[in-house]
Amino acid sequence: MQFSLPRIPAVLAVAAALVLTIPASAQAGHDDSGTDPDNRNQAVKGFSLTANGVSAMNHGKAELERSVITTSWGGGDIEVYDSAYGDTKWHGRTDCTNWNALWTSCDIIRVRLNTSYSKSASQWKSLGCHEFGHTADLGHRYSSTDTDNNSCMRIEIWPTRYDQHDLNAINAGT
Question: Which of 51, 128, 143, 157 has its Cβ near the most Cβ atoms within 10 Å?
Answer without folding.
Answer: 128
